[in-house]
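Cast an eye over my tokenised protein here and flag anything odd:

===
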Amino acid sequence: MLSQQQLHSAFVAPGHISEEIFATICTQSEAEHISIEEALIAHAPLKSSDLGRGLADAYGVPFSMLGEQSVSLDTLSFIPESVARAQQTVFYDIQKEQALVATAHPDNYTFLNTLSQKIARPVSIRYALPAEIEAALHGYQGDLAERFARITESGDADDKDQYAQQGVDLVNLLLRSAFDAGSSDIHLEPFSEGGVIRFRIDGLLKIVTKHSKAIHEKIVARIKILAGLRTDEHAAPQDGRFSFDAGGGRTFDLRVSLAPITYGENLVLRILRRDVHTITLEEIGLSEEHQALLRAMVQKSHGMVLTVGPTGAGKTTTLYTLLKTISTEERNIMTIEDPVEYNIDFVQQIQVNPAKDVRFDTGLRTIVRQDPDVILVGEIRDQETAKIAVNAAMTGHLLLSTLHTNDAATTFPRLAEMGIEAFLVASSVNVVVAQRLMRKLCDACRKSTTLGETSLEALKLSPMIYKELITQSGKEDLTKILLYESTGCSVCSNLGYRGRIGVFEVLQVTDTIRSLVLRGASAYEIDSAAQAEGMKSMSSDGVTKVLAGMSSLDELLRVVHT
């Protein structure tokens, strides 16, 4: 790993980042128990190309934008996949005179010398960012449909042992591929003549392969075994769960939902990544101002912190991330969830189980008798849960939960509709976080652009975003502002986007808001008062991120208006 002085010389001396930012990154490396180089990669406010070139300069080797290279499986295969993954090193061009190798560790001289001896020619070293190495490693997988075909075409179809082994191999390949692609859900859908597999990546579904009905049934049968479901039941819904070790430190949990439909059994697997509670408030997209406010709110001894938004907006992840900031041995933190998706240190978690009469309301009643300091309720769905939650928040407990509303201000009329009296809502709610998830532009292929006349006319249909762009850019002519887009590359699987970030509005219940809630004011009145007091709307937060190059204007329009 590079020394602090080497990194300072590579980034601060040329003016790529300031002394203050570098000092902050050094502090983060200590707090997160990672090297300064790793902290730079995670937190430096630089484009990937600038970050990579700086690190390459520090190592004294050329930089490779590996995502722009087309690397064949034959070339990759000069290094076994397990070795390439462990060493974060790949061959990307084999020439007669030399071999070009991209690595995240150019100082790994022993290994690189071994490669030169193996290939019997000099090895020319290039630095590549770990994310681009990881993307290149996907090339070992090849096309999923082709690999499915190779598995099913091998062996004797009449051999029961080989038939069962094919099911094992197909599912292993499927789960590894989904995890490596960054998928949150795997959909296995039967049709009249066959089946299709789709991965949900960054919120959108993408077809990855189509196959025969026999392959669909083989995969379903194997997953049923892994999840402990009845293999002889084909006409009733079933739910299960299992863990999977994909090798290379890639172990994750999956939640399985099976539903009988017209053409067979429809299967959806939710991938539960175990690193979710290593995410920081900054990484989910909260501004420094919002972070400071929420940290203060979760330090209170009582009251409610609510996250609101549609399904899949990242509400629970935000609550987990907040819990992480206060999870210590001095506090008794308890949760009631449906389901419990991630285990958290020093947190006692209860799984909803209607068969045993463990519901949100009954589980919450039990929790308040367990001497809790902090309570997390997975979702406030009904009047009974809402009443118990409000009472708990007013009697010396900090309560975190989620609610389905479109924006922060609508939370208060929604609680009123559930039968909660206005004075109880006004007294118990401390802060409401409304959010959506917006896809991030791929750093490897991101480029600057400007608004055309056609896009400008379409933008005028979204007056709030139009006004925010003028306000934040300081330009009346929006065709002159600098925006960003991505064309797609191998790093982002030609999608143009890689990863997601939150778009937020954080409404603190001040005396002004409290008085409006007490008199039953509308959501519009509450929202207007909150913005007058300085609340930043989701549109405003999204425009800030778009102008910073984190995402595109098209993506913001898609997210805010859905």
Remarks:
- The radius of gyration is 26 Å.
- The longest helix spans residues 160-180.
- The CA atoms of residues 10 and 58 lie 5 Å apart.
- The domain at 141-272 is CATH 3.30.450.90 (Beta-Lactamase).
